Amino acid sequence: MDYLTTNKTAWDARTRVHLTSDFYDVAGFLRGNSSLREIELSELDVAGKSLLHLQCHFGLDTLSWARMGAKVLGVDLSEVAIDEAQKLAQQTQLSAEFICSDVYSVASKVEPQDIVFTSYGAIVWLPDLTLWAQTVVACLKPGGQFYMAEFHPAQQLFDGYSYFNRGEPDIEQEGTYTENAGDDQQTLMCWSHSLSEVIDALLQAGLVLEFFHEFDFSPYNCFEGLEAQADGRYVLTHQGQNVPLVYSISARKPA
């Protein structure tokens, strides 16, 4: 089974559902709301910088960075998502470029950027993090910054997935994660990636680690068993202790 074709078909279908979901709140975004969350907003400065957003879906985060002064370029596997991102850029009159491409092919299609950004549920769709990290480096200017905020792999254990990459993908039939998912299901192929695999791939590709942070909350209500907090965060507890749900990494390409 070809994972690119399989996942592209699934994300084309998911995009059509996500556009009308409360989860993504496109109407709020068009009124001026940001789709970005507290973790990345507190850790990443984009003003006046060029930013490449890998696996950008239909562009809400990408365009939110544009509103904060970045010159943005979004990349996604789904043609439906990229078409919708371009429409949103036109509606908001934000300066942004979007291209349809798989992650591993993008380095030959873009100029090096000041920042490469990726976030929340992105790398599970990638089988090879060594090639991913090499792609990140190829897309950065000398001295450029890579930043990611991603769901913590420890959480996957509670959903029955491996913490470690087993080489072979998990292949499942499932619906999407938004509240309007309905009964439609798609075939999806994904891979687990431990923290050590992520960090080692980035270091071996030549990036210099600036920080690694872990968080005991999720900014999204997207896992079973999460408890809403008064501050808009969601937590998962195990035997009375909060489970790590998100981590963030900043690393820099040597000048």
UniProtKB/TrEMBL annotation:
One of its GO terms (biological process) is methylation. Residues 52-144 form the Methyltransferase domain. InterPro entries: Methyltransf_25, SAM-dependent_MTases_sf. It comes from the Bacteria. The keyword Cell membrane does not apply. Gene3D superfamilies: Vaccinia Virus protein VP39. GO terms for molecular function: methyltransferase activity. Keywords: Methyltransferase, Transferase. Pfam families: Methyltransf_25 (PF13649). This is Methyltransferase type 12. It comes from Shewanella baltica (strain OS195).
